[in-house]
Design goal:
The structure holds two protein chains of two kinds. Chain A has helices spanning 30-36, 49-57, 84-90, 98-101, 103-114, 129-149, 153-173; strands at residues 13-19, 22-28. By secondary structure, chain A is mostly helical. In chain B, helix 4 (82-90) packs across helix 12, helix 9 crosses helix 10 and helix 10 (286-301) packs antiparallel against helix 11 (311-319). Classes of the chains: A mainly alpha, B alpha+beta.
């Protein structure tokens, strides 16, 4: 049997759809099935990472309440106008400010997707100089505590001086 | 407007050289997603804003530093024909998304096609670096260098807490996707593949088939990539992928050795049959072609067949995609005609080699 869509290839997908008691039979080939995409069982079409994500975000339909309490309907990004409801449907942010406006809602989402909520990787060289200092200070503070715990006070003092130096640099540039 | 060399050759120059472990790892790829601070992401950008983004980024690409790395050409997507776009997708130089949906889309491509920079895809900027064989760390260091050049010219959307901000929450943080494309015929033949693949997904990596639809792997080619982009540094992400891929390489090698030791004549028979069919068939669909090309490639790697080189699978896989077939034969082809032309092209290619 030839595919009823393109009439070219052999139909390999046969199925019957019953909607409200009305029966429709389909005989189509693989490539047409893919093109038609959604609504056809057994094909992957129409099921994207974004629809998966919006499943994670879809607090309203989820029986467990999804990601916490329902946000106010008015939650919206001032910059691009995307609402949180729209975001949860399409699974994509509209602009970089969305991250700030939806901030309270994002931790559970990132936790589910990445298992983490805080970036620890690369920092922009030109615009991220301050962040680099801050991170370095955090690291040094941890090390200083460790040295103090091990009673290596001289080393701890050295680290303290380095921290002060960085902090004054940070103040100057900020 | 640069020359349209990409449409002439199926094999990018970078693929012609061998890399480490290239009998198993076909290529290593890094993709970095970045956005400009002041503009809405491409999905919500107006045509005017998309054009501004494109102009700003193509201007940044004219920098001397970038041209010291390699010579680049810029292609405006709206100025390319449908066929040219399709060919670029088949060579994995642009995404299907950029080809079909983008507004203000552009591609900045170097001569060897190892660096492709997409503008106005899902994010404003996507830098992709490809290396032959198992060289994922090298790919990262090059991609990061290109990233630094752009960062010195434009303001990135970056947040101290969340890192590089991307359109999709699955890319936020480092914005990198590291992937290796592997040919794993022996693991498939010995039925170990499913066990290994399900283990991979448990360590935060994703596996998908390439050239196939969904998770089905056509031609025993699998792409393994990181899923997590937030909360791990780039080095951690790459080390993790490197370690896992290393193990898969060892498993595949062991499986190949065992196949040769235990059933060499069967493997040889399989390889020769596939070679015979590809050299003689009149109709060849893409799935069968991929499977039989995989057999031949395994035969080359195991020294069971000498008349063709190791590039045969890589090249024919791209050459026999729908867009390239139409490019080679210079006519529009329907599905049945493609299967006939595909068979013809493979026959011609294999007899030329011998």
């Amino acid at each position: 049997m030839l595919c009823q869509e393109c009439g070219e290839k052999q139909a390999t997908l046969h199925f019957t759809k019953i909607v409200n008691g009305e029966k429709t039979e389909f005989h189509i080939c693989e490539s047409c099935a893919r093109e038609k995409g959604e609504g056809i069982p057994g094909t992957s079409g129409g099921f994207s990472i974004h629809s998966l994500l919006s499943g994670l975000l879809d607090f309203e339909k989820s029986s467990t309440g999804g990601l916490g309490p329902k946000p106010p309907l008015t939650l919206r990004c001032d910059e691009c106008g995307l609402t949180y409801t729209q975001f949860s449907k399409i699974g994509r942010f509209g602009c970089s400010s969305c991250y700030r406006h939806f901030a309270d809602r994002l931790d559970p989402l990132f936790k589910r997707v990445h298992g983490n909520t805080i970036h620890v990787g690369k920092i922009p060289k030109r615009s991220g100089g301050q962040i680099q200092f801050k991170r370095e200070i955090e690291e040094l503070k941890k090390e200083m505590q460790l040295r103090i715990g091990q009673e290596e006070f001289e080393k701890a003092a050295g680290i303290r001086d380095r921290i002060r130096e960085l902090e004054s640099k940070l103040e100057q540039s900020g | 407007m640069g020359k349209r060399r990409f449409a002439q050759e199926a094999l990018s120059d970078w693929m012609r050289s061998d890399g480490p472990d290239s009998e198993i790892v076909i290529s290593s790829r890094i993709r970095i997603a970045r956005n400009l601070r002041k503009q809405p992401f491409p999905m919500l950008a107006t045509n005017q804003q998309s054009r501004e983004v494109m102009e700003q980024l193509t201007a940044a690409a004219q920098s001397e530093e970038l041209n010291e790395i390699s010579r680049f050409d810029t292609f405006i997507l709206s100025e390319l024909s449908e066929l040219e776009k399709r060919v670029l997708v088949e060579k994995h130089l642009i995404s299907p998304n950029l080809a079909s949906e983008s507004r203000g889309g552009a591609l900045i491509l170097n001569d060897s096609e190892s660096i492709s920079i997409m503008i106005n895809e899902e994010d404003h900027l996507r830098i992709q670096c490809l290396y032959p064989g198992f060289q994922i760390k090298e790919a990262w260091s090059l991609a990061s260098q290109v990233d630094d050049i752009f960062e010195s010219k434009v303001d990135y959307a970056f947040d101290e807490q969340r890192g590089y901000l991307t359109s999709c929450p699955t890319n936020v943080g480092t914005g990198i996707r590291a992937s290796v494309m592997m040919h794993l015929p022996a693991l498939v033949l010995t039925h170990q593949i499913n066990r290994i693949l399900s283990a991979i997904t448990q360590v935060g990596l994703a596996v998908r088939g390439i050239y196939g639809e969904g998770s089905e792997a056509v031609g025993n080619i699998f792409q393994i990539s990181n899923q997590i982009t937030l909360g791990q540094s780039e080095d951690e992400i790459i080390d993790n992928l490197y370690g896992v891929a290393r193990q898969i390489i060892e498993h595949e090698k062991a499986a190949r050795e065992r196949l040769v030791a235990e059933s060499k004549i069967r493997i040889e028979d399989r390889v020769r049959r596939s070679f015979g069919i590809l050299s003689n068939a009149s109709i060849m669909d893409s799935k069968e072609a991929a499977q039989r090309l995989s057999d031949i490639r395994l035969g080359v790697d195991l020294d069971l067949i000498e008349s063709v080189g190791p590039q045969v699978m890589n090249e024919l896989m791209v050459l026999t995609q729908p867009g390239f077939l139409q490019q080679v034969f210079d006519e529009k082809l329907n599905a049945d005609e493609r299967d006939i032309r595909r068979a013809e092209l493979i026959r011609r290619y294999l007899t030329q080699q011998t």
